[in-house]
Amino acid sequence: MMKSDRIERLYELLPVVYRQRDEEDGGHALRDLLRIIAEQVNRVEDDVAQLYENWFIETCEDWVVPYIGDLVGYEIPFAGPLDAESRARVRALAPRRAIANYLRDLRRRGTLAQLEELAEDVGGFAAHAVECYTLLGRTQSINHLNERGRFIDLREMESLDLLEGPFDRLAHTVDVRGINPPRPDGRHNIPTVAAWLWRLRAYPITHAPAYFVQRGAGYFFFTFSALGNDAPIFTEARREEDLATISAEIEVPTPIRRRALEQHPSDYYGKSFAIWIDDPVTPVPVENIIAADLTDWEYRPPDGKVAVDPKLGRIAVAKEPEAMWVSYRYGFSDDVGAHESRRTLTQPRPRDPDDLKIYRVGTGEEFTTIADAIKKWENAQPLHAVIEISDSGFYTEAFDVELAAEHTLQIRAANRTRPVIHVMDYHPSRGEALNVVLNERSRFTLDGLLVVGRPLRVEGKGEKPVDAHLVIRRSTLVPGWTIHHDCKPGAPDESSLDLRNLRGRVTIERSILGTISVMDETTESEPLNISISDSIVDATSDDREAVVGPGASYAWATLRIVRCTIIGRIETHAIELGENSIFTGIVRVVRRQIGCIRFCWVPPQSRTPKRYHCQPDLVLQIAKDKHVTDVDAEIRRVEPVFGSKRFGAPDYAQLAFDCADEIARGTDDESEMGAFHDLFMPQRLANLRARLEHSTPAGMETGIIHAD
Predict the structure, then answer these.
(1) How far apart are CA 636 and CA 620, in angstroms?
(2) pLDDT tops 60 at residue 84
(3) Nearest C-alpha neighbor of 491 from the set 505, 510, 508, 477
(4) CA 20 to 30 Å from 577, out of 32, 93, 148, 276?
């Protein structure tokens, strides 16, 4: 039954005579009353129907999952209250799949394959389990030869390539230290089992143009990455079909090794990556793909062959192609920034359908360039408009957009695409940018796009500040405009987002961007409200400004920062709320009387509103109470440590393994501070450790080792 039919059903049950009188009296008062009653009846019916669904783990609501787990004996490690409002946290601590398979897994306890399945079901990790006693060196018996006691064969490069990794096959001496805290250094021992986990995910890029880097001596060089940087190609992780089988290297999201591609090209080509040259339909045959070391671009491929360096994400060919397209997978931590991941698309819902126009851009669509779609939109001037890009191609164009009063425009990527807007510097005498001009109560949205080359500049039209709304959602405005092959920023001192003459709202959600400049010199009206959540603001250095005003002064803005990683200094008028975030640079605000910063890392020299449960304030207080002499050492101990702070690296802005617990579990719900808070990594790891203890045979010890 459709929703409209359900609302009208009580009214339809009335005799026709009463409905006729209701219509004759005008106003339809009786119909409106019965609609209100029907709405409440529908809610009661839906609740009763859901009560039946809540009896089953497959169909129950998220908040019911922990209770069903308790019924079957699935113990959840304590990590704060499980409230129904934090659905993501409930899913991390009480995963539906793990509870559904719990009774079945009890029969398989102690098997190696079950440990890998637990890592997937409980924590969502790709895993590889290793019985470490099989890698111990021992004296050979002439009657029973084995592979474990042999010396290293220096000519067997494959084994050397895998040394000390998850798929190590060489023998080791005994290490009697434990594999779990507080002595996590031991690994190779008789009772030890190692569970290797991958935190990074393999994100796809589908049929996108390769990036031309340079030519030399008759050869032509490209990168898989749209930004021209070195980025390893990751394996497409595929869970093994046989539950009794241990995962292989091809089944986990790990960077592809050169030697693995050389020996088993068909395992990777066509699955984890593919290349098209001149023909966008037929890919290059696998027999024409050769693995090579393209460091310094010194390797020269033979004619008709395509040299691929999966470690650096580079391509070399002998003949200049007219066009080259690639599909591949790269590594990253979570859906922050622009990715080809599934996401919810939002758009206005006007009363009159004619007020909404959608213009589609891409291969096979009505428009081939964004500029053509914008020109069509400018001529039509609908009240609400969406320009949707349907592929992951390059769009090397700069465009100017002006929204009329109360109009909205959304430029977005279609679901599971990641288009790149490369703003070229066509005019040497002036700086190019994506220029957006807003009028009163207009709204501009950028959703799912990667912008490289120049900044996004948004300004209000007129002399007085304009009350408008800017939304940046799941997008990437490359910090430093561009990056070099080693991910070093091309213009580290430049901003990625310029805001001028605005007095409305700026909303930034799950995005990556560089410096935010609020270039308003007047303070006659209220400051600009900027809300940033689940995002990374990267000034490319802790000493550069991440949020700044004109002339490196204070920005005339009020910030709200929730679950963010801010790399750089903040100079602003006020901070309304800073929560569960990391500020690597000094924070200075003008108005300290308003706002609050809670459960954050803030450098000690900062000038902020009132702080609550922040670091290093807590460790400083503890050190003072205990009369610790080396206070600076305590501050250094709890400083956030990242895998990388360079945009373009797979572990960009990801907390390192040795990051202090005060940061890794320092938020109000005991998750990690920063942009990847919603991964709930500490809860997932704690839950997995508890399950591993139940599934490890007596006398054995299972430890978690991070492979990335």
Answers:
(1) 11
(2) no
(3) 477
(4) 93
CB neighbour burial string for 587-621, b if at least 16 within 10 angstroms, e if fewer: bebeeeeebebbbbbbbeebebbebeebbbbebbe
In what order do the strands lie in the sheet containing 126-131?
126-131, 192-198, 701-706
Can you give the C-alpha Rg of the chain in angstroms?
29
**Confidence at residue 147, expressed as pLDDT on a 0 to 100 scale:** 60
Helix (H) or strand (E) run with residue 565 in it: strand 565-567
DSSP states along 576-614: EEEES-EE-S-EEES--SS-EEES-B--TT-B-SEEES-
Identify the helix (H) or strand (E) that includes residue 498. Answer: strand 495-500
Token pair belonging to 503: 């007095």
Long-range contacts of 282-290 (CB under 8 A, 24+ apart): 289/261, 289/265, 290/262
DSSP helix/strand/coil, 197: strand
Q: Say what the pLDDT of residue 179 is.
A: 82
Highest mean pLDDT range out of 11-25, 121-135, 664-678?
664-678
Fold classified for 356-614? Pectate Lyase C-like (2.160.20)
Mean pLDDT of 568-588: 96
Q: Please check whether residue 498 is in contact with residue 443, taking contact to mean a CB–CB distance below 8 angstroms.
A: no
Q: What is the DSSP letter of 153?
A: -
Query: Three-state DSSP class for 6?
Result: helix
pLDDT value at position 89? 75
Query: CA dist 169 to 162, 163, 212, Å?
Result: 7, 7, 39
The residues near 86 (Cβ < 8 Å, ≥ 6 apart) are: 669
What is the SS3 assignment for 543? Answer: coil
- Considering 264-278, 418-432, 614-628, the range whose residues carry the highest mean pLDDT is 264-278
List 324's β-bridge partners, or say none: 277
Q: What is the pLDDT of residue 277?
A: 95
Q: Are 254 and 261 in contact (CB under 8 A)?
A: no
Distance in angstroms (rounded) separating the CA atoms of residues 434 and 458:
8
Residues 537, 516 contacting (CB under 8 angstroms): yes
Average model confidence (pLDDT) across the chain: 88
Mean pLDDT, residues 60-70 taken together:
85
Is omega for the bond preceding 182 within 30 degrees of 0, making it cis? yes
Kindly state the helix (H) or strand (E) to which residue 389 belongs, with its residue range.
strand 384-389
What is the biggest distance separating any 2 CA atoms in the chain, rounded to whole angstroms? 105
Say how many C-beta atoms besides its own lie within 10 A of residue 332's C-beta: 21
Residue given tokens 């996401």 in the structure block: 343
* pLDDT confidence band for 3 (50 / 70 / 90): low
The CA distance from 115 to 695, in Å, is 7
Q: How far is CA 625 from CA 284, 604, 610, 629, 637, in A?
A: 68, 18, 21, 11, 18
Q: pTM for this one?
A: 0.88
Q: Which residue has the higher pLDDT, 237 or 389?
A: 389
Cα separation, 13 vs 385, whole angstroms: 41
Dig out the tokens for 244 from the structure: 């009794």
Helix axes 29-53, 3-13, angle to 10 degrees: 120
| Strand 434-438 relative to strand 456-460, pairing | parallel
**Position 512 pLDDT exceeds 60:** yes
pLDDT, residue 24, reads 77
**Rounded distance, CA 186 to CA 168, Å?**
16
Question: Taking the CB of residue 487, how many other CB atoms lie within 10 A of it?
Answer: 19
Nearest to 159 by CA among 259, 262, 237: 259
